[in-house]
Design brief:
This protein is an alpha+beta fold and 475 residues long. Helix content is 44%, strand content 17%. It is built from 18 helices and 15 strands. An 8-stranded mixed sheet has the order 8-14-13-12-9-10-11-15, with helices on both faces. A 7-stranded mixed sheet has the order 1-7-6-5-2-3-4, sandwiched between helices. Helix 5 packs antiparallel against helix 11.
Length: 475
């Protein structure tokens, strides 16, 4: 009798899930995965779908007061936003198309009075940020997905406390899930020192199902509106501590001086308002735009579920589709959507040299197996794949040695559809050449994947890859 009751309940729950997938699903392949998960895993499958699969964009997400506030805040606060005329100064048509695409999706214009320094690893990044903090005179704004207690964050705390004694304002945003380990004691210590610290999308009762799947993955540091940092580096000792499995994490970041810092800061101001309802945009101190003597053209790409388009996925697709000679990708979580996968195949089969530099091991076994499951398809299309022994956490793509992107965005469904992400597009051949040199140095030390050898992997490995790909909508 119990069996029939449970079966009936499962049928009801599955029918509800099936209705939502059928009417509100976006991609057929992803919808099919969710249908199978909901059907094959009684109760658990539907629960996981509720947490991670419901398309809140199509159902309630854009109707919620908080999201409307977030979506419209920039337009209402920064009414004097510039147009995108600077894009017409770009040398190539593909660069102009990318710049206009981002502007149409985000209203973030291209800027040119900038100086950019590429920071190749965590050590360089933290040293540069610490130096900038020490020289701050007005305010320091930090936003990170992961803030983890340890040697690095202790250094941050020491410097930030010192700056507060100098009457420099300090504000910190952290993702409630990514920084879950951050203790109440440490947060209180910061507050006692006069530092404002707030969580984003906190896991509160009544909002748990809504917030769990939408995380803020951005990494932003803005100092006095003159210097900004963004990229893939979080505040954690993983970048300086050599563990037995992954070693020291390797990551890329950029230091920006000039006009683009204002656009970077706009993203922080919007997120700060969303987290606190405190409107920093009304104070000119936080909205003054500064210029640099250099002429590096930069465009900030902000993306998230509060945008009508999947901005970062369209950015990556435009890079792949508009490339003429080469595409190079450095990313730790390469789990491409169908459209991204097809774009890479088309590019490689068209004679464009496509090179992927990926980590051999990762911090998630299921993500790693899922990544490996796409190798055979890509190799057969002519894509070159190299595997690094160290854990490369960088999120970098550059095309034709002309245009590069460094930011927080992975090649997976989570970054494209669920997370709040931020990239910096650099329209500069000299900087892209510098990134290319670092990329080639790492590639030459990596292991190239050959199709004939890859096909010989064990049945166990192939099975784990296929099973992991089945759960790719969750990754």
């Amino acid at each position: 009798m119990i069996y029939y009751i449970l079966a009936f309940l499962h049928l009801i729950l599955f029918s509800w899930a099936f209705y939502n997938i059928l009417y509100f699903g976006v991609k057929p392949s992803k919808s099919l995965s969710w249908i199978l998960i909901a059907f094959l895993f009684p109760f658990v499958g539907v629960f996981v779908f509720i947490l991670f699969g419901i398309n809140r964009r199509k159902i309630k997400f854009f109707e919620l007061k908080e999201t409307k506030k977030r979506k419209n805040y920039i337009k209402e606060t920064f009414k004097d936003s510039k147009d995108n005329k600077i894009a017409e100064e770009l040398e190539s048509e593909k660069a102009k198309k990318i710049a206009h695409l981002i502007y149409k999706n985000t209203s973030i214009s291209l800027t040119k009075k900038n100086k950019v320094t590429v920071l190749k690893n965590g050590k360089e990044t933290f040293e540069s940020i610490f130096e900038a903090i020490e020289n701050a005179t007005d305010f320091i704004h930090l936003q990170y997905y992961i803030i983890e207690e340890g040697e690095i964050f202790s250094k941050f705390i020491h410097l930030l406390k010192q700056k507060r004694k100098e009457n420099v304002e300090v504000r910190i945003l952290y993702d409630a899930l990514g920084s879950f380990s951050l203790s109440k004691k440490t947060k209180q210590e910061l507050k006692n020192a006069g530092i404002e610290i707030y969580p984003e999308t906190p896991l509160r009762y009544g909002y748990f199902l809504f917030t769990l799947n939408y995380r803020n993955h951005r990494k932003i540091c803005v100092i006095d509106n003159k210097i900004g940092f963004t990229g893939g580096v979080n505040i954690t000792d993983e970048y300086i501590t050599d563990d037995d499995f992954l070693g020291i994490w390797q990551d890329a970041h950029v230091k920006i001086e000039g006009e683009a810092v204002f656009n970077l800061h706009k993203s922080f101001i919007k997120d700060f308002y969303y987290a606190t309802e405190i409107d920093l945009g009304k104070d000119r101190k936080y909205t003054t735009c500064h210029t640099a003597s250099n002429d590096t053209k930069i465009q900030i790409v902000s993306s998230g579920p509060d945008y009508e388009q999947s901005v970062v996925m369209q950015q990556y697709l435009s890079f792949i589709n508009l490339a003429e000679t080469s595409i190079c990708v450095l990313n730790p979580y390469f789990i491409p959507t169908f459209s991204i996968l097809e774009a890479f195949k088309i590019a490689a089969l068209s004679g464009i040299k496509v090179t992927l530099l990926l980590p051999k091991k990762g911090d998630s076994k299921i993500a790693n197996y899922s990544m490996y499951s796409y190798f055979e398809i890509l190799l057969k299309a002519g894509v070159d794949i190299y595997l690094r022994d160290d854990f490369a956490h960088s999120k970098v793509i550059f095309i034709d040695d002309e245009i590069a992107s460094i930011g927080s965005t992975n090649f997976d469904c989570r970054s494209f559809e669920h997370n709040y992400e931020l990239n910096a597009i650099l329209y500069n051949k000299e900087i892209t050449a510098e990134i290319r040199q670092e990329f080639d140095d790492k590639k030459n030390k990596a292991q190239k994947v050959h199709l004939d050898e890859f096909l010989k992997r064990s049945k166990t490995q192939k099975t784990l890859e296929r099973l992991s790909r089945f759960f790719s909508p969750l990754l």
